[in-house]
Structures are given as structure tokens and as C-alpha cells.
Amino acid sequence: DKDERTKVKELFAEVAKKAGHKVLGWRKVPVDNSMIGPSALKTEPRVYQVFVSLSDAHEHLEPEQQ
User: Greatest CA separation found in the chain?
Assistant: First the structure.
């Protein structure tokens, strides 16, 4: 539900901030669910992608290593 997603996003932002990052934004990942049935649609997960700034303290590392 929307309240749960908001809580998760806030928690992620808090953890990112502690690591020296800033959340730049979120986007819902587009999916093609045209081939799944009604019962699967009811339980289909929502997938989001987050964009974060790089931390200056770790600029020698690749983003995947931070």
C-alpha cells in the first residue's frame, strides 16, 4: 500500500544519507503485464528504481562498491 511504500522510501533515504548520498528521485519501472491473468495482476509487485548521488567520501570507488 502507499503508506508502506512511503515508509520504505523514507528509510532508504535515511540509510543513503548516512552513507553520504542523496536520493535524487524514484521512478516506477515500466512492465508489460499484458500476458498475465487476473489473479496474477492482483499480486503483481510494484518495482521502483531509485537514483542517488555519489558520495564525495568514496569517489575513488565505483558506484557499485559504495
Answer: 48
